[in-house]
Amino acid sequence: MDSPKFLAGQFLLAMPGIGDPRFERAVVAVCAHDEDGALGIGLGRVVPRLHFHDLLKQLDIDPGVAPNTVIHQGGPVEPQRGFILHSRDWGGEGSVDVAGQWCLSATLDILKALAAGRGPSRWVAALGYAGWAAGQLDEEMTRHGWFTVEGTAELMFDCDVSQRWDRAFQGAGIDPRLLTSESGTA
User: Could you list the residue range(s) of the whole structural domain that residue 36 is in?
Assistant: First the structure.
């Protein structure tokens, strides 16, 4: 029997007609996926009227030299919980390496390091996450809803959020304007 394919280090792209408005045009960086479930951070939308300095000030951290970037809507689960997806050139307590491609950190030490100019060279911030129970994402992958692409640094760190979904499909050789919300069987 083939072992299941785990998707950590890849991006999930919501197909048109996914059926859940929270995930329309979603781009989700899969940070953990195994037999116990999956966790991903959404990178397809930003939190309106909230920037990184606002978040730091709410936590009584002086923004220092940290850029005042947007905060991504990481997902519907625990929307007040913060995450930093970042390059592998920094690691702190609780940092998780994701398939050798990027790291995920969710502790105050990375926020303080970013404010002090000692954090990772590349990063994005998010609030909340998308979570799947054991076998749930695997089952969803058998239906029309998600498409996977390699989770590249360019898509994560260099691509404007408003273009990320289109660019991810284009990188896979797919013109997203030609996608349909219908699925069928052969």
Answer: 10-178
